[in-house]
Amino acid sequence: MRWLLLGACVAAPLLIATQSPLLAWRDPIYIASSFAAILGMGLMLVQPALVGGVLVPRDARKARALHRVIGVALLGVVLAHIAGLWITSPPDVIDVLLFRSPAPFSLWGALALWTLVLAGSAALLRKRLRLPPWLFRRGHAALTGAAVLCTVLHVVLIEGLLPLWLKAAVSFLLVGVVGYAVWSLRLLKRRARA
Asked: What is the Cα gyration radius of the chain?
């Protein structure tokens, strides 16, 4: 049941976006890039649900493995989003990546990208960097938390394929699931100490 509910939360924005009147004026690459971004936010919603034990509470190894796979997929769709925007307008993407764009949503999108890249790089290089588990967990959580907040601000500010009410609902759900994951992990640590 939890998987079905989460699947609906990921699929609904994609389905609703297909009805956007803005699709009539966009080229296919831009549309694909926009849908990659919407899928990315959906994948971002799955990650804290796995970490917090909402989806796979009994087998931590399977949850971690799935978390890694979805993390790679998330980085892939974010890169697809940026690649699509690059194909449609390279100068705009350069301005965004170098924090020179005047649009406020661009700043938050760039910050979300760089924090996700740092979080993913830390996960990939964890063993080579010989990071202690507690340091990796805290750093990874801080970076992904920052990425979530920056993504929410990016999504809410941009005029895209999704209506404002849906962007607000998905953003609220995403922040809520992240909050629950942080709370449940702290609760588990307290129980382990007791």
From this structure: 17
